[in-house]
């Protein structure tokens, strides 16, 4: 296939602003290229994933949907990078078979009927605004099979009843090393932002007095400062936004990963990164991790928003076999498994068998 991947318009590829979408696009692109497909990625200027064939497009970023009110109108800054990226895609569409949209934004859905080439949409978050809630089901109906979600739970937030494609993610497992004997420490990974619920993990670290290593992009400074002042004695350490290699070096030496999200996490890449290192996941039973973590096998699923639940699960973390975690990542979440799912989805859209 000749493919065009259009990246998220909230930040450049490699900046971390786009969260899991950045790794998702990168891994899917690498795997499609490895399989011999042709591919061009269109991303905002200053993208740093330069081992991909990227066309860098200037313009102003979109605001992040998770920072918007439900009823907020569709926002477009002047000289919007999203419009510039899609204008470029429109111009080069005849050189490709199919365009894949990675943006969680109203515009690419709206533009779908105006393109000559099919557009496949990979939806990366659950329901957040009324405008997106209205347009996604519309495209699901109008162009069956073209919209993929990460998990069933995520699709349900849009009230979608139709049979849809669920594309759980995959990672390059060779980049994550297994560690059998961890140090007495826990990990928390993600953007430092209210929807990620970091404060509950910090509260659990304070109660158990087990050091918590925090890694991820600082997105909301005042949120972070409030956590630090609310839990002055918690044994926490913020390590910054780390490269995949540095991240796995710290993560693999942890007893467990805490996932304390407040929102319906669509998938949670960090779950599979953790499993790849043999690190069990203690997660709220909410959103994607509720489907990717096997309770009592690859970690524990805890009642949402329950810090005592986290503490109880932390006490039982040694019951989880770390080899089983790595095996789970190998069997379900490798980049090859992702490639199989991704290819099948795109072939179905193009009706190629
Ligand atoms: N991540 C990273 N460095 C860090 C912490 C996180 O590169 O120090 C990446 C991680 O690999 C994952 C992404 O940030 O791909 C977070 O994605 P996830 O799906 O868990 O959440 P999202 O940010 O999309 O809501």
């Amino acid at each position: 296939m000749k493919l065009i991947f259009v990246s998220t318009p909230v930040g450049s590829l490699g900046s971390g602003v786009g969260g899991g979408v950045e790794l998702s696009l990168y891994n899917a692109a690498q795997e499609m290229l490895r399989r011999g497909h042709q591919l061009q990625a269109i991303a905002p200027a200053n993208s740093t994933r330069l081992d991909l064939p990227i066309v860098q497009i200037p313009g102003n970023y979109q605001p992040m949907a998770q920072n918007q009110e439900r009823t907020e109108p569709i926002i477009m800054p002047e000289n919007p990078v999203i419009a510039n990226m899609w204008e470029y895609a429109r111009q080069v569409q005849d050189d490709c078979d199919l365009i894949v949209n990675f943006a969680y934004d109203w515009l690419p859905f709206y533009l779908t009927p105006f393109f000559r080439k099919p557009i496949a949409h990979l939806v990366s978050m659950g329901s957040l605004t009324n405008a997106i809630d209205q347009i996604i089901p519309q495209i699901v109906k109008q162009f069956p099979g073209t919209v993929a979600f990460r998990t069933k739970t995520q699709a349900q937030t849009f009230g979608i009843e139709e049979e849809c494609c669920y594309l759980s993610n995959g990672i390059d497992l060779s980049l994550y090393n297994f560690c059998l004997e961890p140090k007495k420490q826990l990990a928390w990974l993600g953007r430092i932002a209210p929807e990620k619920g970091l404060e509950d993990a910090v509260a659990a670290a304070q109660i158990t007095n087990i050091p918590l290593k925090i890694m991820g992009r600082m997105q909301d400074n005042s949120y972070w400062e409030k956590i630090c002042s609310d839990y002055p004695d918690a044994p926490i350490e913020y390590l910054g936004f780390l490269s995949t290699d540095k991240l796995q070096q710290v993560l693999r030496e942890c007893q467990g990963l805490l996932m304390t999200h407040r929102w319906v996490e669509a998938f949670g890449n960090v779950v599979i990164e953790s499993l790849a290192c043999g690190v069990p996941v203690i997660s709220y039973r909410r959103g994607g991790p509720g489907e990717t973590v096997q309770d009592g096998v690859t970690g524990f699923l805890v009642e949402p928003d329950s810090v005592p639940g986290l503490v109880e699960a932390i006490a039982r973390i040694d019951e989880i076999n770390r080899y089983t975690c790595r095996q789970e990542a190998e069997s379900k979440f490798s980049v090859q498994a992702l490639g199989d799912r991704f290819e099948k989805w795109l072939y179905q859209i193009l009706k190629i068998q």
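The first strand starts at residue 2 and ends at 6. DSSP finds 13 helices and 13 strands in the chain.
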